[in-house]
């Protein structure tokens, strides 16, 4: 009987871990190595805005810096048809290294942000889970230190998106054109 109980407890634990491991976080995440400038290489989102507007996104640059309180300050510049849109945000650290939260004061949305996979020197794959009232959105961003990422890395992005249930029409690879990038 004891053995059966232990077995069941083990199964529950395995199931709980599986749910938690659904969206992985970079092992031994080092916040000091993620700082600096990144180019947006690819993105996926299930928001209606993204589905209809993604093709108009020409380039985006993001700079991460370590905030004096240990959080991640995010300065992003997106090139959109209406011009450059600059955003400053702070991603707050959580108990789990590589996982952050951000509440958008303008829209009242709450974001659960994870660095899924990075080697710090070339690429960073990030996952965003946004809750606003009763709506939820998922977003994936592939950043590169340069726009020239190995095809394997872009495949990694596509594969991760498929695993998370994104369809082809919700994914977008940005044009590989440095002159379309904005500098900050
Ligand atoms: C640092 O992070 C805090 C939140 O933890 C934020 O209120 C503050 O504005 C940030 N500092 C800078 C320089 O952005
Ligand atoms: C973002 O922060 C930088 C300096 O940290 C500042 O120069 C810039 O004006 C800010 N942009 C916005 C849109 O707040
Ligand atoms: C890159 O973008 C610039 C500015 O729109 C354009 O003039 C140039 O032809 C583009 N280059 C390529 C290789 O698409």
Automatic annotation (TrEMBL):
- InterPro entries assigned: Calycin, Lipocalin, Lipocalin_CS, Lipocln_cytosolic_FA-bd_dom
Identify the residues that the record assigns to the Lipocalin/cytosolic fatty-acid binding domain, covering every copy. 35-178
Q: Name one Pfam family in it.
A: Lipocalin
Q: Check the UniProt entry and state the signal peptide residues, or none.
A: 1-21
Per UniProt, which keywords does this protein have?
Signal
Q: Which GO terms describe its molecular function?
A: small molecule binding
State the family it belongs to. Answer: Belongs to the calycin superfamily. Lipocalin family.
Q: What is this protein called?
A: Lipocalin/cytosolic fatty-acid binding domain-containing protein
- Originating organism: Latimeria chalumnae (Coelacanth)
